[in-house]
Known about the structure:
globular, five-stranded mixed beta sheet
Amino acid sequence: MVHLPPVSALRALEAAARHLSFTRAADELNVTQSAISHQIKHLEELWDLKLFTRLTRKLELTAAGQALSGVAREFFQKLDTTLDEVKADGGHTALRVQALPSVAAKWLVPRLQHFREREPDIDVWLSTRMEDRGRFDIGQLDGAIRFNREETPGLVSWPLMQEYVFPVARPRFLEQWGHPKDPEDLCRYPLLLRLGEIGAPLWDTWFESVGVSERIYSPAVREGTRFPDSSMALQAAFEGQGVALARSAPVWEDITSGRLVRLFNITCPYVYPISFVCAHDKADQPQIAAFRDWLREESRLSQAEFDAAEKQNP
């Protein structure tokens, strides 16, 4: 037992080994890069082993680091699985899923009852988080629904939906302001802006994609209320405060019901597809496979609706 380190040090080892980066490990564990470095140094001194080879711009695991990080990863996975089994009632299996807030609220939650009916012994524990590049707590999550921007070591992904981006407004707002004649005309309307976090659809990008020059649209996107996520921007649109830039999934039901109006029949694919991701070594677990397969079926139906609407555009 004299060689047993603190759990926090084992967490640091497991995360650093998976990312091959102290910085990314620190982001995932919500600590500083210096804290990760100190934890690894503590392990190396405690065990009298070198765990990483520190190169100029990257890390490499030594043979000892590879073996011991594997033991740490297995420990955390078995601990989490056992805790879920012990806590689950009536033999139910807990499935911990994280999703983008806008996708969770407007697309996933309305469909979850279908999964419940299909897999009554699997309890989905849903959490939300704004998109963070590369973040995925392998010890606390079974899977995540997020934008697929890049491959992440240790994770496997399945594409779900390729969305489109377009402006939306409430009908009563358009009764007051009138319908814009073209995208350039939209620059005289109050635009609901985003804070510019990674992954957010931005007015600058949309205006450029539809051929409006920066000289014309720049004044319209410099000033105005800014919102941290899609849900808040869309709520402001519902309140008649202006025009929001939306992705397909969060607004589809509102558009088909007439609560929101899509402006312009211009096809503008969103740059990042939505994907389901999980750890490589969890991909074949029955509850994860069941949820993933159900997600892909539901996504195919939504994608067909998105694409059919775009094909109607001139």
